[in-house]
């Protein structure tokens, strides 16, 4: 984990026109560096600006000031469209195409990226294998459970072989049991694919299971980074038994205190 894939320098974001009553300052001077193959989690209370930050990072929204460097290139306030193919996105509501099968949803992504040929067809199978859905290639979204649909969303985000996986509360719409199961699966997918992952969540346990580093955002707008936490729990300890791990419990208590004290 050596190369810096992102260098984010004093990013701020406001919505609404300058000097008007409708202007909302959402993000104030956030800076961070993200290393290749890291799993970074942005943690914060509802409405604090997590998604806004992620959208700037993923080139969906421009920043109002500051600059973003990606793969050694400074793109100023907005990552251009042609760089977006380097990212794979998963949102809370997976936005699968209802009229396409599992396989068809992955193929749609490849069509959008103009990626054709046998190697890409093989990649669809490979990704469905990684998320454990190879047997569900021909099913339509309505024939799958919520957790399975979200796994299709993850496979689709990975199929064009992006450098970075951007996850915006990917487990937020799931029931508690499915949410927990899928969080272990995301960990396995990360281990297998070795992608850089940036994930937004408001769930402390999920953040501790998955992250190398956690950035906690302050709850009052404009948000900024209130804490940066290195999650020094070995990867071998990150499984169903993590709740018995001493470091997990120490960090959990510490982060819960931070989150409670900033409400
Ligand atoms: N396009 C927009 N125009 C105006 N205000 C916006 C826009 N997008 C977001 N906001 C405001 O920015 C703030 C942060 O929103 P954001 O969705 O980033 O928060 P969040 O932390 O991701 O919330 P949640 O966890 O509830 O999804 C909110 O007050 C929201 O109303």
Q: Explain this structure to me?
A:
- InterPro entries: AAA+_ATPase (IPR003593), ABC_transporter-like_ATP-bd (IPR003439), ABC_transporter-like_CS (IPR017871), ABC_transporter_ATP-bind (IPR050166), P-loop_NTPase (IPR027417).
- It comes from Flexilinea flocculi.
- This is ABC-type nitrate/sulfonate/bicarbonate transport system, ATPase component.
- GO terms for molecular function: ATP binding; ATP hydrolysis activity.
- This protein has helices spanning 50-57, 102-112, 118-130, 146-158, 176-193, 204-210, 246-261; strands at 4-15, 24-35, 39-43, 65-70, 73-74, 87-90, 164-168, 196-201, 213-217, 225-230.
- The chain has 263 residues and is α/β, with parallel strands linked by helices.
- It has a single domain (4-261), classed as P-loop containing nucleotide triphosphate hydrolases (Rossmann fold, 3-Layer(aba) Sandwich), CATH 3.40.50.
- It is globular and about 50 Å long.
- The structure holds adenosine-5'-triphosphate.
- Adenosine-5'-triphosphate (ATP) is lined by residues 15, 24, 26, 44, 46-52, 202.
Keywords:
263 residues; alpha/beta; Rossmann fold; 6-stranded mixed sheet; 4-stranded antiparallel sheet; 24% strand; globular; binds adenosine-5'-triphosphate; ABC-type nitrate/sulfonate/bicarbonate transport system, ATPase component; nucleotide-binding; ATP-binding
Total separate domains: 1
Q: How many beta-strand elements?
A: 10
What percentage of residues falls in helices of 4 or more residues? 25-40%
Rg, rounded, reads: 19 Å
CATH architecture descriptor: 3-Layer(aba) Sandwich
* Number of helices in the DSSP assignment: 7
CATH topology-level fold name: Rossmann fold
- The first-level CATH class name: Alpha Beta
Provide the β-strand percentage band.
15-25%
Average residue pLDDT: 93
User: Topology as H/E string?
Assistant: EEEHEEEHHHEHEHEEH
Largest beta sheet: strand ordering? 6-7-8-3-9-10
GO molecular function, one term: ATP hydrolysis activity
Pfam families: ABC_tran
Protein name: ABC-type nitrate/sulfonate/bicarbonate transport system, ATPase component
Organism: Flexilinea flocculi
């Amino acid at each position: 984990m050596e190369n810096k894939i992102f260098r984010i320098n004093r990013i701020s974001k406001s919505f609404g026109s300058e000097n008007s009553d409708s202007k909302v300052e959402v993000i104030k001077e956030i800076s961070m560096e993200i290393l290749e193959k890291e799993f970074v989690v942005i943690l914060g209370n509802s409405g604090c600006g997590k998604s806004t930050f992620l959208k700037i990072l993923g080139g969906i929204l421009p920043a109002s000031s500051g600059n973003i460097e990606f793969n050694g290139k400074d793109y100023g306030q907005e990552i251009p469209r042609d760089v977006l193919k380097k990212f794979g996105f998963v949102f809370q509501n997976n936005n699968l195409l209802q009229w396409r099968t599992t396989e068809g949803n992955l193929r749609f992504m490849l069509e959008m990226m103009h990626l054709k040929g046998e190697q890409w067809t093989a990649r669809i199978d490979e990704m469905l294998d990684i998320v454990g859905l190879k047997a569900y290639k021909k099913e339509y979204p309505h024939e799958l459970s919520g957790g399975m649909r979200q796994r299709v969303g993850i496979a689709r985000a990975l199929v064009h072989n992006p450098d970075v996986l951007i996850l915006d509360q990917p487990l937020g719409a799931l029931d508690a049991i499915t949410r927990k199961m899928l969080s272990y699966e995301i960990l396995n997918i990360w281990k297998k694919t070795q992608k850089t992952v940036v994930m937004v969540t408001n769930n402390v346990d999920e953040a501790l299971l998955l992250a190398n580093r956690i950035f906690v955002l302050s709850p009052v707008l404009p948000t900024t980074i209130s804490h940066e936490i290195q999650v020094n729990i070995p990867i071998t300890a990150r499984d169903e038994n993590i709740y018995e791990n001493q470091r997990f419990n120490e960090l959990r208590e510490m982060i819960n205190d931070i989150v409670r004290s900033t409400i």
